[in-house]
Amino acid sequence: MPLTHDFFILITPYTLVLVTGAILSHHKEWNIKTIAILASIFVLSIITEMIGVATGKLFGVYAYGRGLGIKIADVPIVIGLNWVFLVYASNGILSKYTSKNIPIIIGAASLMILYDILLEKVAPLMDMWQFLKNDPPINNYVVWFLLALFFNWAIQYFKINTHNRPARWLFFIQFGFFIILVIVNEFNIF
What three-state secondary structure class fits 72? Predict the structure, then answer.
């Protein structure tokens, strides 16, 4: 809504920090291995995004707006937290239904792609990022899927326990919120 638009842009990075903090505060098995894997996802995702923004070759030509807060090399710091959240939560969702690695890895990566398809519609509305030609190219989804596969493989390979009920709920709450934003925008409700 016009009345709350700027407020939502202002609080978005803080919300992502709080969401990630909330799920990690409910993690049960903290150890060096868990910290190293989650920190690696954070760092590798930011480096990948930096390469993507600088070259336009990984995800397509895009630029981050002001909606995700403080940036390093044109990439918001919270984007790494968002990758950690999405990998952790999607892995936790699939782990609830099976203990087999391959279905978890592929299923979680697929869930992340569904999330990204929706998020790509919302991101420009919230000044998160914008692609040069408005719609992301197919390589955006291919690279997202490959990264999601790799990060979820790492979670499974190193046996990080992602059974975390709040993480699953927060994933679906965000997904639902984005659906509402897309509907409101598509039908010009406000």
Answer: strand
Torsions phi, psi for 5 (to 5 deg): -55, -55
Tens-place pLDDT, residues 167-183: 999 999 999 999 998 89
Matching residue, tokens 């894997």: 37
Residue 163 burial (C-beta neighbours within 10 Å; 0-12, 13-18, 19+): middle
Q: How many CA atoms lie within 13 A of 14 on its CB side?
A: 5
- The pTM (predicted TM-score) of the whole model is 0.93
CA distance 41 to 36: 9
Tell me 43's DSSP state. Answer: H
From the CA atom positions of the chain, what is the Rg in Å? 16
Which DSSP state fits 125?
Answer: T
Which tens digit of pLDDT belongs to each residue from 64-116?
999 999 999 999 999 999 999 999 999 999 999 999 999 999 999 999 999 99
Q: CA-to-CA distance for 75 and 63, rounded, in angstroms?
A: 8
